[in-house]
């Protein structure tokens, strides 16, 4: 038995779920950002698997995965720069310390 | 149990275990290392899916550049005991876990309930050649836009990280 | 210049006064004399163009009909053009309006010379002239209605011109609101026409109406349209605004509330004659309303003391005469009377204005007297106008009034014929009561009355001349040319017989004689007559208490409605709004604590939402 499309999708679902948990439960902003990367990777697995199993005449899924990687790289660069800027202001990377925008 | 499936299951196990490590380690540096492992596993999945070019990009960009960025960021903002840099938020811990679990099971249910198309003949052509054709043909505009986005992101990151001049 | 030039450029007749209004309003309001000159010059050019147009229209034996239009508003189910329809009817109206407007504006130079609002007065005068001419030129009911409302608003401005006086303000409001009642019916009628026939153009409507034989619907439409006439031409029961409109400057009363605007209702019936004549029941209603108004207003005029109010009730009565003639089908006679009446009634008003001017705004006729020797021109022209109104041959009123009487007789409404004769007698009486008391009476007026300046007497003289000769186009001397041109296929056109002429002349003379006996020779003391029927006199002097009845009804209705609406507002609307506000406030107060500023809380809400959506998708079945 060969691994099918649903295997990859289940793997992606699991990875995505772990990423969601990380986003929701970590206090460190950098860890949250890492979890976001996990979620993006899960999405990419879906794209690549679809490129192979659903439409392999045109491997458009791979193109999209490539763009996701590009945007993720940009996001990480800007996100980390923001974290450094925030750290300079508050001397903290703890999400609980950033609650200016409340009621 | 074909060899392919065994390989897949191994890779999947590595990815998931590494991912759990990312969200479970108390030391952010350990999390970063687990993240690299996870990225490499994902790259292996890409190789298995006949997407060798994307797999290489994954290793270069994620396992290489992004991870290095993370490590540098950790280094710049670490101001306490490294063993307590990645603590959970007690307020959202359990509710976050429940939501993640519900979401995963919902997605899994969706995957099971959906009737997926049968796997077709494996792609025989040159994937990299076709990818190049698509990127510089149909998606040329998006490709150039992505290049500009990267440039802007780099400039923005520098300005943000450098801080405003007094 | 060929005659076609005048036909093609007839729109300038209305446009020039409008331009003058715009220029005065925007740039010249600080220079009243220049404003006045501009206004007079523009209306003067309009008069020349109107005369040229009339020449072109009457060039052939049948009369030329010229129509041109451009699209103004076009949407599914409604199309309104801005156009012009030039036919003998329009040509007559154009001449009447431009001529009277020009003379009134010249006269106003003298009458209003020291008024601080002279520039705006001339701006309003120009706007009124433009609107009235646009109304006359219109080739469809949509355009007619627009200008109809514009003349109404000009009337409002000019009645309330001396807005420092409370009575003028009240009168202006009264005129506007009373007219709204009629105009609302008129608008409904127009919308009915559009719904039923899909067009507002006179020509297309006339064609569409030929195959239409639902008499009930037609009656409703005709009566709704007649509602507009009742309001504008001040017919009973919407007549109450016209006497009060005398609060405006006297030249305004002459132009708007005697000669032109109030005649718009009559003009409307003439224009829509193809609709009215198709519904005999509507015609009967029109005839009765007109006849009743004629008698009703004439009886009030018998006892009034205010010189302008006597003339105002006389106008009401004469408008009733015209409407009655329309109702009996004598459309041509009615328009003929409209034309002659416009000339002699504006003459009477302007002459009355001259008297009022000379006596420092005194309007009570019993405080005047023996003015003939002090103001010979004014008195002479006034007497010419009064003779014309009374119907003394060969002045203009004689010919037109006799044609109306002949029309009522031949249409078979003997009752209306007798009523018409009675009104003719009463008209002669109250006019010469006025003449004898003001110009010959033994009373001596206060102060030192003097003849008005030439700028006021010249228009009087011209109007007097016109009042004498304006009847000839409808007389045997010119082979009844007026009725030949201004006519409608459905209208009846009768020439008065010798008997009617003799009877009406004798009645007019006896009316004059009675007035002479009572007020000049004092052979019959008016007091004695009053004491014989004191209740009736009281009724007349209080104008049949119509105003009081309206005030009572309106006050009752308004109070009751207001009380009910107040209850609704407090108990339903207010409570509803308060509860909604309270609920909203409470919800916001409660829910705002979910906004704790923690980005992870927001992420929680978001993923929670995604789970709900996912669950719904799984439950309802995934797409694909």
Tell me about this structure.
The complex is a heterotrimer of chains A (103), B (166) and C (624). With 103 residues, chain A is mostly helical. Chain A contains 3 helices and no strands. Chain A has helices at residues 5-25, 29-53, 60-90. Chain B is mainly α and 166 residues long. The model of chain B has no long low-confidence stretch (mean pLDDT 86). Chain C is mainly α. Chain C is 73% helix and 3% strand. Chain C has helices at residues 3-8, 11-28, 32-57, 88-111, 118-137, 141-159, 166-197, 202-210, 215-232, 241-244, 250-259, 264-271, 273-276, 280-301, 307-327, 331-358, 376-390, 396-410, 414-440, 454-469, 481-485, 498-520, 526-532, 534-541, 546-591, 599-620, and strands spanning 66-75, 78-86. Chain C has a two-stranded antiparallel ribbon with strand order 1-2. The longest helix of chain C is centred in the C-terminal third of the chain and has 46 residues, at 546-591. The radius of gyration of chain C is 29 Å and the shape is globular. Chain C starts with a helix and ends with a helix. The chains are: A mainly alpha (103), B mainly alpha (166), C mainly alpha (624).
Distance between the termini of chain C: 80 Å
Helix content of chain A: over 70%
Strand content of chain A: under 5%
- Mean pLDDT over all positions of chain A: 87
Number of helices of chain A: 3
Helix/strand-derived category of chain C reads mainly alpha
**Main sheet record of chain A:** none
Task: Provide the residue-averaged pLDDT of chain C.
Answer: 88
Quick one: which chains have the greatest interface? Answer: A-B, 74 and 88 residues
Radius of gyration of chain C: 29 Å
For the biggest β-sheet of chain C, the strand order reads 1-2
Element-level helix/strand string of chain C: HHHEEHHHHHHHHHHHHHHHHHHHHHHH
Tally the helices of chain C.
26
Unreliable stretches of chain A: none
Order of helices and strands of chain A: HHH
Number of strands of chain C: 2
Q: Poorly predicted ranges of chain C (pLDDT <50, ≥5 residues)?
A: none
User: What's the main sheet of chain C like?
Assistant: 2 strands, antiparallel
- Per DSSP E runs of 2 or more residues, the count of β-strands of chain A stands at 0
Mass-distribution shape of chain A: elongated
Q: How large is the share of residues in beta strands of chain C?
A: under 5%
